[in-house]
Write a structure and sequence with these properties.
heterodimer, A: 121 residues, mainly alpha, 2 domains, 0% strand, extended, B: 230 residues, transmembrane helix (chain A), transmembrane (chain A), LrgA/CidA (chain A), cell membrane (chain A), membrane (chain A)
């Protein structure tokens, strides 16, 4: 268990280093994600405990960002002023992204002709 | 008594209890997107802060251990990606192209439309990562000079919209490829989309969580490049 937790923090630490020292503008945690992905690709070993730890963390993600969401308490004026813009932009963007992603995927699958038999209807 | 309102123990207890209550309501609603525990618990905690005249900075400091866990949690997203490496290899081209197209659409449309409303730069920076999962959006937003709290709320709202509209829209359009449906909902509506996709179809769910995790990377890479060159 400890080794799995340590692995996550080592990756995060490397991410933190690359972020600060190399000035990579990606968030440290996302760099850490890429480092862990690389590690998994190189090591190619079953890591049941890593699955347990990361699964537990992912399952409780929403609790972890409650304090940040509460920060809205200071955003009253911004929300009052741009609330409609935020709602319109987010709604349209969400629907548009969904349609573009689904269309491109289907178009490429048809063009390349791969996996058509796997379509589960 | 006043000292109590600055302790971690007190605010962690409040946050966990309120969240647990919200989570029970959410379960009872069959995990309806509008009853997401964060949406239910945030206003309650804001009300408690107002009643007790507690500044947000005090609350944020007292509960910082929760935010701290976001770092390793995001790193852990590598595990579900790696578990689906075979899917990615089989469908490398469609997944890559759909993902990039979706990520660019999400950024450009959200920032473009919001700028029509005359929103300032900090607000545009908060909406730019709106298609990524919430913790990544908050960190990317602050990287770009935005407001993490705004980013969190925008992302949650996008999740609700995506989770509620995807199934009716895809059915109406007659799209039956659950791989495409899952990927699209994961790219645009992150965890909310993935949760909904798993309720509809296991293939859709697998592709949705893949879309969510990969989009967290792609969107951040795109935004970082934009930030470097602008």
């Amino acid at each position: 268990m400890i080794d799995a937790i340590a692995l996550l923090f080592v990756c995060l630490g490397v991410g933190e280093c690359l972020h600060r020292v190399a000035g990579l503008p990606l968030p440290p945690s996302v760099i850490g994600l890429l480092v862990l992905l690389l590690w998994l690709a190189v090591m190619r070993r079953e890591r049941p405990l890593l699955n347990t730890v990361s699964g537990w963390l992912t399952a409780h993600l929403s609790l972890m960002f409650v304090p940040a969401a509460v920060g809205l308490i200071n955003q009253g004026p911004a929300l009052a002023r741009y609330g409609i813009g935020l709602v319109v932009a987010t709604t349209v963007s969400t629907l548009l992204t969904m349609l573009v992603t689904v269309s491109v995927f289907r178009f490429v699958v048809k063009r390349v002709g791969s996996g058509a038999a796997q379509v589960t209807a | 008594m006043n000292g109590l309102l600055t302790t971690s123990a007190f605010w962690l207890a409040v946050t966990l209890l309120v969240f647990e209550g919200a989570d029970r309501l959410s379960r009872r609603s069959g995990r309806h997107p509008l009853c997401h525990p964060v949406l239910l618990s945030t206003p309650v905690i804001i009300a408690i802060l107002m009643i007790t005249h507690t500044p947000y900075a005090t609350y944020a400091g007292a509960t910082s251990v929760l935010a701290f866990l976001l770092g390793p949690a995001v790193v852990g997203l590598a595990v579900p990606i790696w578990a689906r490496a075979r899917l990615i290899r089989q469908l490398a081209l469609p997944i890559t192209l759909a993902l990039c197209a979706g990520a660019v659409t999400a950024i450009v449309s959200a920032v473009g439309i919001l700028s029509l409303f005359g929103a300032p730069r900090a607000m545009l920076a908060s909406i730019a990562p709106r298609a990524t999962t919430t913790p990544v959006a908050m960190q990317m937003a602050s990287e770009l000079g935005g407001v993490p709290a705004l980013a969190a709320v925008i992302v949650l709202f996008a999740g609700v919209v995506g989770a509620m509209t995807a199934t009716p829209i895809f059915n109406r359009l007659g799209i039956r490829d659950y791989r495409a449906r899952g990927l699209a909902i994961g790219v645009t509506a992150h965890g909310f989309g993935a949760a909904r996709a798993f309720q509809v179809d296991p293939t859709a769910g697998a592709f949705a969580s893949l879309g969510m995790a990969l989009n967290a990377i792609i969107t951040c890479v795109i935004l970082s490049l934009v930030q470097l060159f602008l």
